[in-house]
Amino acid sequence: MQIAAIPVLEDFASRTQGDPGVQPGERVRVENLLIDERPPLAGVALYARYLSGTSVVNGDDWQNRHNNFVAEELEVGREEASEPWTFRADNAVNHLPLIDQRINLIRVEDVRWPCDLSHITFEQLQEKLQQWKGPDALASAQAADFLQRFLATWNEQRDKRPLFATTELEVEDILADTSANLAERLRDRLGLGHYSPISGAPPIPVLIMRYPVVESVGDNKSLAVPTLLDGKLNDYFFPSPFPGKNSDPNPALGHSLNLTPVVQENDYRLGVELLHPHFDYRLDHFFWSGYIANPVAMPLVRARSFHLPWLRLQRDREDFGAGIVGAAT
Known about the structure:
The protein is built from eleven helices and five strands, in the order H-H-H-H-E-H-H-H-E-H-H-E-H-E-E-H. By secondary structure, it is an alpha+beta fold. The protein has a five-stranded antiparallel sheet with strand order 4-2-1-3-5, with helices on both faces.
């Protein structure tokens, strides 16, 4: 990102790079800041409003200021007229060209908060999902009413923040095997490292939602490639570069950091991610329900060291991240 326009952030990044005692997570976030070339000048100027002024003391200070940006510019209330920064005209350089709107998208949702909103347990939700898809017509209809009310309550409380998703085509191998650890395999492929229960903690209940592109973009809205300015700071995010001249001509989607445990770089596979606008879930968007019970097993540094060479190859950008990513390890 062009942080020269934000001197206090540039100073913080320089100090962090030169400090061998910095924690890995903080170093990763600064690496992402330095290599993310996609935020346009208008976005940097907007971000500067939340970062300028007094020196950025440490990583927590930066995160707090970044969260203020997220709260004001991304987590826009559903009744507000403005759109999140991601989908504004000033960010058009990161808007994806029109893709087949019949393609299905896949999103993983932590449903602890939605269940709390409806004062139900996840087990009750799963029971109703089973009844809805079951052979008993009366029980199915009653379950459908229950699920409609659950969705209405959830949709009502959601804001307009950009939503991360992937395409069904990119994860069809995982979706074809609906075993107990489907959600964990999706978590790993999509780089959702924040869904990682610590030892002894309860598992995370999740829903896998599936819906076509046309329903996620609505009227004249865009999909987008994620940047550092499209969500909270995340150790598991990895910016995607602009494609080189010999890159694949297909739409340059974002590439999520794959956390599937592998030892060799040749066994690594890039994930795929994109952002779409908020929309209301419907009954037919339910695909699967289950738990994430186990923590991420792939070391973050290893995942990043495997990800970068494949990303450079995919996007024809051998220069991307040179001298920055992993330079201190």
